[in-house]
Amino acid sequence: MSAGASSSGLPSDDFNDVEDFNWVNEGEGLSKRDRFTELLDLVKKGNRAFRENRMEEAINCYTKASNIQPNDAVILSNRCAAYIRISDFLKQRTPTDSEYRPLNGLDPTIHAELALKDATRLVDLRSNSVKPYIFKANALILLEKYDLAREAILSGLQVDPLSNALQVSLQKLEKATASLTHRGRGKPERSDDFDCTLCLKLLFEPVTTACGHSFCRSCLFQAMDCSNKCPLCRMVLFINPKTCSISVTLNNIIQRNFPEEYAERKSEHESLTNFGFDLLPLFVMDVVLPCQKVLLNIFEPRYRLMVRRIMEGNHRMGMVIIDSTTGFPAEFGCEVEITECDPLPDGRFYLEVEGRRRFRIINCWDQDGYRVASVEWVQDILPPDRTKEQLDLQEMSSNAAKYARLWIKRAKEAAWQDRRRLAELFHAEAMMPTPQDPELFSFWLAGLSNRRPPERLDLLYIRDTKERIRRGLIYMRDAEQGCQVQ
Domain RING-type: where (predicted)? Predict the structure, then answer.
């Protein structure tokens, strides 16, 4: 993670370095010398990780130190700076970066909220210092709470009216908010009173906000992926797609007066939500195998739009990974179905998806920021029924299923103290398909042991069921031997 200038618009000097922990600093409250030695070592490790731009590691060290010495100003200050750096870094990442180098973990909003929590406690501990107010203002700006950020800066100026950093911060903040207000209130030209001011087309499924402005339902929530404010007047909107209803009267007027245009808009909307069997929206992140479940946290605006459209359609999308050799999505991927969708008030989604079937990408293009592909479905070349080859395959699947049950039993016994691993094993056991479907069973078998993405991608390319079963058995034996060595 690079330590570039902060996108929040405030000076980033306060986040370029952290404070060192001295023996005289808060040391009297510790009962034992060795515990303070441990505390000092954790802060040193955290500071070294911070200066080397390993923010996740730095936060882990500061958190462990905070558990030993709660409410320590130095520890809170350093952790707050790390949270702000991560949140700012994630906000600056381009869509291309997220595809080529996908990141796991918390999203920028949660990091900013954690920074605000530390900064608020820091203000109480160091109310006579300017730095906590700068931290608090930066966290609030990352959360787009500009009025509260201005109050934090003004509170800091009451402590030190001559602080150059706070004065410059206030000027930049006022300039940024003035620009936002001007841009938000600049109404675009309308060709008709029934046109949406976002897409400039006839309103479709119109929604009228509390501030009195009407937009296409899909256009409004696409805009709210980037900000929870009215696109025209910048009023904060407390609505979400699950509870928001269309304006029935306005919708009826449009249907009566513009039936042909309305039919065209309806057809256009359906083409974006019902992709059909040979057209898939793509979530570019990782390799998923058929019969595998994955949890996803969707917070990028383009993917929030994609998920809403999918949930209005067939609940299915494709998951692929970027091929490092070409720089484009890999040729093969897996269709996944959204089995659980939990929309959050801030527009994010927590998803549970389950792999269904393989596909090969024929053509791929961008649509509203995310990728869409025309695909062909891929299946193994299975031997004809009632032949020796088919009987051999069934016998191989049955024997592999017996070994898999024994393998899971041993893995449970080895992981009896690891609740997370036990939950994974029970879940995998429940997902086991019948050996009478060798192709689907082979994917489940190969996915039992966690493999690296290139190995999972190879499994999607293979069209020989026996070969995939062999690899699955090898992976399981390797995993079992690795546990025994440990």
Answer: 196-234
Q: Is 213 exposed, middle or buried (0-12, 13-18, 19+ CB in 10 A)?
A: middle
Q: Which domains does the chain have, with CATH numbers?
A: 13-183 (1.25.40.10), 206-270 (3.30.40.10), 275-378 (2.30.130.40), 388-485 (no CATH)
Question: In the beta sheet, which residues pair with residue 30?
Answer: none
Those residues with Cβ within 8 angstroms of residue 363's Cβ, 6 or more apart along the chain or in another chain: 373, 374
Tens-digit pLDDT profile for residues 200-243: 888 888 888 888 888 988 888 888 777 778 888 888 887 776 66
Among 276, 249, 254, 279, smallest CA distance to 265 is for 254
CA dihedral 162, 165, 167, 169 (to 10 degrees): -160
Angle at 342 between CA 427 and CA 310, to 5 degrees: 100
Radius of gyration of the chain (CA): 27
Q: How far apart are the first and last CA of the chain?
A: 32
- C-alpha to C-alpha distance for 293 and 338, rounded to whole angstroms: 10
Residue type for position 279: L
| Token digits of residue 47 | 């500071």
Q: How many CB atoms lie within 10 A of CB 394?
A: 14
290: left (phi over 0), alpha (psi -120 to 50) or beta: beta
Looking up tokens 């293009």, which residue turns up? 365
Render the burial of 150-174: b for 16+ CB within 10 Å, e for the rest. bebbebbbebeeebebbeebbebbe
Distance CA 467, CA 460 (A): 12
**pTM across the whole model:** 0.55
Q: From the CB of residue 23, how many other CB atoms can be counted at a distance below 10 Å?
A: 9
What are 293's strand-pairing partners?
Answer: 354
Structure tokens at 79: 């952790």
CB 164 within 8 A of CB 14: no
Residue 248 tokens, joined: 């029935």
Q: What would the two tokens of residue 297 be?
A: 């946290």
C-alpha 460/C-alpha 453 separation (Å) is 11
- Give percent of the chain above pLDDT 90: 21
Residue 360 has pLDDT above 90, yes or no: yes
3 state SS for 376-406: EEECCCCCCCCCHHHHHHHHHHHHHHHHHHH
- pLDDT of the residue at 468: 92
In degrees rounded to 5, what are phi and psi of residue 350? -100, 120
Strand pairing class (316-320; 279-284): parallel
3-state secondary structure of 34: helix
Helices (H) and strands (E) counted in the chain, each on its own, are 17, 8
Which tokens hold the place of 189?
A: 């030209």
Q: What distance in Å separates the CA atoms of residue 435 and residue 393, rounded to the nearest whole number?
A: 10
Closest to 87 measured CA to CA, from 65, 121, 119: 119
pLDDT at 395: 92
